[in-house]
Amino acid sequence: MGSGPRAFAIFLAASGLLYLMASPAVAAQTKHSPAVPHEASAKQAPLALQSSLVLVPVFVYDQARMAQAPKEELPCVRSTVEAFYRLLPTEPYLPENCDAAQIRGLTAKDLRLFQDGVEQKIANVEPAAWWTVVRDNLGWYMQSSDTARGIWGSSDLSRQRLVPPGINRDFYILAYVPRDSKAGCHRIKVEVNRPNALVFARDQYCTGQSPSDPLIGTTRGKELERLLVSEKRGRIPMSLQTATFYTGTDTARVDICLQFPWNDLHRSWDLSQWAIYARIGIMGVVRKQDGTVAARFSDLLYPSYWPTFVQGGEEFKSWDMGATPGAMRHDLDALRLLSGTASEIAPDYAAIKALLSRSDVAWLPTRYETQMDIPPGDYNLEVVLSDEEKFGRAEAPLIIDAYEGKQLALSSVALCKRLRSAAVAAKEATQANFALQYVPLVSKDIWFTPAGDTHFEKGEPLFAYFEVYEPLLSQNSATVELHLRILDASTGKLNEGFAPVDAAPYERAGSSVLRIARKVPIDQLPKGTYRLEVQVTDSAGRSTAWRAANFAVE
After folding, report:
1. Phi and psi (nearest 5°) for 97?
2. Contact by Cβ (8 Å): 186, 115
3. Phi/psi at 364 (nearest 5 deg)?
4. Which end of the chain is more exposed for a tag (fewer CB within 10 A), N or C?
5. Cβ(76)–Cβ(9) under 8 Å?
6. Looking at the domain assignment, is residue 47 inside a domain?
7. Are 337 and 425 found together in one domain?
8. What confidence tens digit (pLDDT) does each residue in 37-79 have?
9. What is the DSSP letter of 229?
10. Residue 132 and residue 191: Cα distance in Å, rounded?
């Protein structure tokens, strides 16, 4: 996405291969061995939405296989990367699981879960992948999630001399309903009925947490709540776009997309453990006009129980102590991380750190997307992002009109830069069991990704996605026409008007919803700020109010 994405294996095309794995420095866990502990948190009453379902991400490795894993994985990884670059846009990327040390095929019978020492009934165990590769019109990048709706996204990696990772993709998601409803925070322990099992798992649950808001009650969650209500100015620049779409009578789905510079986020490399340290937390609260909380979400990138270790670190540590280099020698030579000959063992730690830091662009996110279901009303959305040293804040009004399902209506307008095949994306997400409750913006089998930053450079595409709700369509008794225009945001004067568009190509049999995406020509616009407005009319003589979305051309 317990929450937060998780270490990924970055293959450095220019200088060799690095891949991530759980650290051998953690004590091995044999049959029924407990998980690696997470940070403790104090008790706190929940602020908002309740959910009885607790999701527990779990990584399980065979410690006995770790030493030989690199040699076993390398051919698989190379084959997977080569296959990636041969793919056509119409072909899904369904990578093979190359992780030789991962223990696969576990079911509820192989696992035990305890809360405060009391065994709980495991409701479900599902294999999943926490990262996927997105290929679209602008290149490719990594996205990750372990929650149903929250998705972190990296910067474009196409031009970074990086190639897609080949391991550390798969984990398990355990679900259970706590038997003890007592308020406060509770300790979770996961045991695995396998010899040599090394387990990394969420180890805490606090009352009031939900799959989309796992930080309630935790120390980090309280810190983010304090930042939300403080008057301090944040130092991390953030941009925010929201859009609202009706999903039923008086029910709306709010899409939220945030953008922030990845290189402003604090991170560090611990070469004693060969691990990256980054704790990127996010929290959003939707408040009613009286200040009460109507909805909220939270997420955490790299919680402390998530394995964020680069394979090969133990080899460097043992080498530094005078051990024989062994099987890793060919990789180390390729990476040029050592100086001298085999008899002159001298790891260049400065070079190692510089090499690892080159992959920061892939480890750290630059955007976050999520969705919430909210009834009609006037609200204010407040969002805070923190890296433990500094933070950023953003807010936006949310006005959701009442909708009875009988009138012609128009959604918000979501501005997008990126698009891809919806059929391909669906196959990739299904195979990975990835954020399956996230509802994409799809028009004519094209998946449009909302932009967190609505500043467009010359040459960048601008797509407007919106939905039309016309009850008469299901009766074949009306037609719909689209109207788009661009206004100067500072003066309100019309800058560009477009001819009306017949919406018939967007109709689907038996549906009263039109899902529409239009490319908006902005190449001829001078630098400045603008407002795109959309209106729809039907053959029954009805029309909607104009819906607007602001953007800038740079």
Report:
1. -80, 105
2. yes
3. -100, 140
4. C
5. no
6. yes
7. no
8. 333 333 333 323 335 789 999 999 998 988 788 788 888 888 9
9. H
10. 28
Whether residues 272 and 208 fall in one domain = yes
Q: Which domain holds residue 61?
A: 11-372
Q: How far apart are CA 391 and CA 238, in angstroms?
A: 10
Q: What are phi and psi of 167, to 5 degrees?
A: -140, 180
Angle at 383 between CA 54 and CA 491, to 5 degrees: 145
Q: In the prediction, which pLDDT does 316 show? A: 44
Under the banding of pLDDT at 50, 70 and 90, the label for residue 108 is very high
Three-state SS for 180-230 is CCCCCEEEEEEEECCCCEEEEECCEEECCCECCECCCCCHHHHHHHHHHHC
433 three-state secondary structure: coil
* Type and span of the H or E element at 227: helix 219-229
Structural contact between residues 122 and 175, judged by C-beta atoms closer than 8 angstroms: yes
Sign of the CA dihedral with 501 first, then 505, 508, and 509 last: positive
The span from the CA of 392 to the CA of 39, in Å, is 24
Bridge partners (DSSP) of residue 536 are 482
Read out DSSP for 284-345?
Answer: EEEEETTS-EEEEEEEEES-TTS--BBTTHHHHHHHHTT---GGGHHHHHHHT-EES-TTS-
> Given the structure tokens 């699981």, which residue do they identify?
97
Show the DSSP H helices in 54-157 as ranges.
Answer: 69-86
Amino acid at 283: M
Residue 195 neighbours by CB under 8 Å, 6+ apart: 30, 31, 64
Identify the burial level of 431 via C-beta atoms within 10 angstroms of its C-beta, where 0-12 means exposed, 13-18 middle and 19 or more buried: middle
Residue 387 lies in a domain: no
Structure confidence at residue 551 (pLDDT): 98
In a domain, 406, yes or no: no
| Domain CATH number, residue 441 | 2.60.40.770
DSSP code for 350: H
| 451 pLDDT higher than 50 | yes
* 392 has pLDDT over 50: yes
